[in-house]
From TrEMBL:
Domain Isopropylmalate dehydrogenase-like: 8-388
Species this protein is from: Halocalculus aciditolerans
N6-acetyllysine sites (modified residues): 117
Site (Critical for catalysis): 135, 205
Name of the molecule in the record: Isocitrate dehydrogenase (NADP(+))
UniProt binding sites for D-threo-isocitrate: 88, 90, 94, 104, 128
Chemical reaction(s) catalysed: D-threo-isocitrate + NADP(+) = 2-oxoglutarate + CO2 + NADPH
Example GO molecular function: NAD binding
Length: 396
């Protein structure tokens, strides 16, 4: 992306705690921009509850158009009712803007409470496919005509004894395409090259699901070989020809079975760098990784398309904490850090990172961290963010 020093950046505050964390995060990002000689022109746009109040609809066309036009944007969480009501606005946004990757960096911030022994080894960036897999939502309820049409086939394939298994069956479909896989893996490899990362790991369950997850693995390696022959090396060649020592500047492309990968996340965290995963693996793995380095209050993310970014924290709208000025704004602030990186403002992004880390180290934190940190002091979200702004002024 080529951006001016005063870009227009659309922002959706979102529902629930979004209204607590988004405005204070905005102040932190403004401070970092100003400290590095720039200026963000925010364009407030609406989705969810506030859009219903203002325009009578959940996701106005004007909002989608703003995100499409201005390319680099940020949002707070949006509530999705379970089981009834409208479908997820997050999913709708990702589809309308073709944001096919969910990117979640997981890195340790000094002072953050962690359940694992060596959290400081964690420095991974997870690329999760956002549009396919069992999350495509192609499924049929037990008893429907569609299920009855294939029921006999399914039962035969599974070796059902219909005298025992005579109850209802629900059926879902798991589409994984070459196109969807390759564009995800391309983004992960490009990121690894641009950010001097050592490896990209394809995380799959191809031993069991050969034509979906196994194909994901094969297409991933194929893409690396076809499009990045100079910049990448696969793990087999690395051992056969280089005794496991990667030649200078080459990104190693490897693969791991998903269950093993979840285990390695705990035992050999430092061996992993950039991960590329189908939707479901990515969902589980990035939450498990996030929990090791401070949890939801801290975990940032972004949805990426071709030349388009919509940054957003991993957490939801946490309705029971909404409007209390208590939710941790770090996840929103650090999602803003991704936005600054995507604008090419690495110095401003680094300032945000350092200022948040300094604040957490001071143990003057929001309620979620305070109860886990020994000697912690509880601050309101707005106080916490104000102190981060002061840290930025001191660090700049
Ligand atoms: P949630 O992330 O909103 O909250 C789960 C719990 O995590 C909270 O009760 C709270 O204890 C803690 N938490 C979350 N964010 C925190 C923060 N910033 N600071 C401190 N503690 C925090 O998950 P949920 O309760 O499953 O979902 C609530 C709503 O959010 C649902 O409607 C769901 O669909 C939606 N949601 C939206 C997004 C999104 O917009 N991208 C993501 C996840 C969930």
């Amino acid at each position: 992306l080529v951006v001016p020093d005063n870009p227009i950046v659309p922002i959706i505050y979102g529902d629930g705690i979004g209204k607590d964390v988004a405005p204070v995060a905005q102040k932190v990002l403004d401070a970092a921009a100003e400290a590095t000689g720039r200026d963000i022109s925010w364009m407030r746009v609406y989705a969810g509850e506030s859009a219903r109040d203002k325009y009578g609809e959940n996701l106005p066309d004007d909002t989608v158009e703003a995100l499409r036009e201005f390319r680099t944007s940020i949002k707070g969480p949006l509530t999705t009712p379970v089981g009834s009501g409208f479908r997820s606005l997050n999913v709708a946004l990702r589809k309308k803007l073709d944001l096919y990757t969910n990117m979640r960096p997981t890195y340790y911030l000094e002072g953050v409470p962690s359940p694992v022994k060596a959290p400081e080894e964690m420095d991974m960036v997870n690329f999760r496919e956002n549009t396919e897999d069992v999350y495509a939502g192609i499924e049929w309820e037990a008893g429907t005509d569609e299920v009855e049409q294939v029921r006999e086939f399914v039962e035969d394939e599974m070796g059902f004894d219909s005298t025992i298994h005579d109850g209802p069956v629900g059926i879902g479909v798991k589409p994984v395409t070459e196109f969807g896989t390759k564009r995800l893996v391309r983004q992960a490899i490009e990121y690894a090259i641009e950010n001097d990362r050592d490896s990209v790991t394809l995380v799959h369950k191809g031993n069991i699901m050969k034509f979906t997850e196994g194909a994901f693995r094969d297409w991933g390696y194929e893409l690396a070989e076809e499009e990045f022959p100079e910049e990448t090396i696969d793990e087999d060649t690395l051992w056969e020809e280089y005794d496991g020592e990667a030649p200078e500047g080459k990104v190693v492309v490897k693969d791991r079975i998903a269950d093993n990968m979840l285990q390695q996340l705990l035992t050999r965290t430092g061996d992993y760098d950039v991960l590329a995963m189908p939707n479901l693996n990515g969902d589980y793995l990035s939450d498990a990784a996030g929990a090791q380095i401070g949890g939801l209050g801290i975990a940032p993310g972004a949805n990426l398309g071709d030349g388009r970014v919509l940054a957003e924290p991993v957490h939801g709208s946490a309705p029971k904490h909404a409007g209390k000025d208590k939710a941790n704004p770090s996840a929103m602030i650090l999602s803003g850090r991704i936005l600054l990186e995507q604008l090419g403002w690495d110095d401003a992004a680094d300032l945000v990172h350092d200022a948040v880390e300094q604040q957490i180290s001071s143990k003057r934190v929001t309620y979620d961290l305070e109860r886990q940190v020994e000697g912690g002091e509880k601050l309101a979200a707005s106080e916490y963010a104000e102190e981060i702004v002061e840290n930025i002024h001191d660090l700049a």
